[in-house]
Automatic annotation (TrEMBL):
Transmembrane segments: none annotated. This is YALI0F27181p. It is found in: Cell membrane. It is a lipid-anchor. InterPro entries: P-loop_NTPase, Small_GTP-bd, Small_GTPase. Its main location: membrane. One of its GO terms (cellular component) is early endosome membrane. PROSITE patterns: RAB, RAS, RHO. GO terms for biological process: endocytosis; endosomal vesicle fusion; intracellular protein transport. GO terms for molecular function: GTP binding; GTPase activity. Belongs to the small GTPase superfamily. Rab family. It comes from the Eukaryota. Keywords: Cell membrane, GTP-binding, Lipoprotein, Membrane, Nucleotide-binding, Prenylation, Protein transport, Transport.
Amino acid sequence: MATPRTSSQERFAQFKLVLLGESFVGKSSLVTRFVKDEFLEQRESTIGAAFLTQTVSLEDNKTVRFEIWDTAGQERYKSLAPMYYRNANCAVVVYDITQASSLERSKAWVKELQHRAADGIIIGLAGNKLDLEDKREVPTEEARAYAEEAGLLFFETSALTGENVLELFTEIARKVPFENSTARPRMSAKGVDLNKNGGTEAQGCNC
């Protein structure tokens, strides 16, 4: 019989994650579902970016803490994006499966990340609004083929129902270079790290 691991053997590391995509593709709803397991029918557009945190527990007693920057999708905030994805370890680029143009914009974000973000950044492509299957404009296989060609993780998600949301962030957590991070023993087991107010809006970041 295997000997149970003690809490002193738990390992903890944190990584910076940024969300990118057009307005109204559901970036904020996606991250709210991940962080608070909630969906808000009415949301105001993000101004600049919102900051949230969440942890994911992995196999082998590993825990990954994501420091998440949810960026605004409006064109007037596009110039701020490099400030948020600078030094990011991972990114989620979101498109709306009911809007073909949003996938094309996502491809531009991916290209920008691959050329300007940190080397080795883990990028996930999320086709959101899976609950609106009857209005789909982006075929799953088309998006998957692009993701495979570009070396991206790929999930179709629904912030409304929660489908594949945890799976997306968990797979990213598995891919980040945990052993090469500033991993350290976890001092206490406080559970999930949730922002009481759902995130802090910020127009600038020293990150």
